[in-house]
């Protein structure tokens, strides 16, 4: 009986791991559907809601790659996704998922550098080797201004060793807290490191907090036209994002499922 028991145990384990990798278990993942019809952003949103779930939402780079693969007509230059501007530097998905908080200065990020700092209340990209003051977050005591000049990596190490991490600025309230600390020390025009850094074409927070995925092309969003409050992706540029007038007509991608 013991030998039989071991045999069946091995069989059950084998079946369990086979099921985990079975293709049909992916049916619950979000699926993208490319619609090669020219519509305004609002018309595309309506179409997706009537026929699928909503205009496409993108939560990470894997989603972005899957969405880009769904665009099977490579002659298409721009495609709508469900990201829309809802206020100054605030973007929100059509599905109502949390808004992206972006506080870049004019024509920032420039795309040349990999670390983020704050000056005059706005973000700028800067060479990580430059030395600046910085602000740490301490989960017990709150924000801590460090009156030492360090490069970004050394500042990150200092915060992690002595507090929690470099400060994240994920919404307007957190931005105001950081600006208040800077103002109290009369450093408003100084460059202060925050926990923002670039990995490939995506900006992330040092503490890995939920800052919402963003994949803007360098220099975007730039609001170059009149009311560029909606978002296109460019399939032939790995799906990077551009702000665009919602009244322009483009093909679009819907998503289905969660």
UniProtKB/TrEMBL annotation:
Alphabetical UniProt keywords: Disulfide bond
Instruction: Cite the Pfam families for this sequence.
Output: Lectin_C
Q: Which residues form the C-type lectin domain?
A: 32-137, 145-255
Asked whether the keyword Lipid biosynthesis is assigned, the reply is no
Tell me the SUPFAM superfamilies matching this sequence.
Answer: C-type lectin-like
Q: Matching InterPro entries, A to Z?
A: C-type_lectin-like (IPR001304), C-type_lectin-like/link_sf (IPR016186), C-type_lectin_CS (IPR018378), CTDL_fold (IPR016187)
Protein name per UniProt: C-type lectin domain-containing protein
């Amino acid at each position: 009986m013991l030998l039989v028991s071991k045999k069946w145990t091995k069989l059950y384990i084998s079946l369990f791991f086979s099921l985990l990798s079975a293709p049909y278990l992916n049916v619950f993942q979000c699926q993208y559907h490319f619609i090669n019809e020219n519509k305004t952003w609002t018309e595309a949103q309506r179409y997706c809601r009537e026929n699928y779930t909503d205009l496409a939402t993108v939560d990470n780079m894997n989603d972005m790659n899957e969405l880009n693969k769904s665009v099977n007509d490579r002659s298409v230059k721009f495609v709508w996704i469900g990201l829309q501007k809802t206020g100054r530097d605030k973007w929100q998905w059509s599905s109502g998922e949390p808004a992206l908080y972006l506080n870049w200065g004019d024509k920032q990020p420039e795309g040349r550098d990999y670390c983020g700092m704050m000056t005059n209340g706005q973000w700028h990209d800067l060479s990580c080797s430059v030395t600046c003051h910085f602000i740490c977050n301490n989960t017990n005591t709150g924000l801590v201004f460090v009156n030492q000049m360090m490069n970004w990596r050394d500042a990150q190490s200092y915060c992690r060793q002595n507090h929690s991490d470099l400060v994240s600025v994920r919404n307007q309230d957190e931005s105001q807290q950081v600006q208040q600390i800077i103002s109290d020390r009369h450093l408003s025009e100084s460059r202060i490191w925050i926990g923002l850094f670039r990995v490939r074409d995506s900006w992330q927070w040092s503490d890995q907090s939920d800052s919402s995925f963003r994949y803007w092309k360098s220099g975007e969003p730039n609001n170059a036209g009149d009311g560029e409050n909606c978002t296109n992706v460019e399939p032939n540029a790995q799906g990077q994002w551009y702000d665009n007038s919602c009244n322009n007509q483009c093909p679009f991608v819907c998503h289905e499922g969660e």
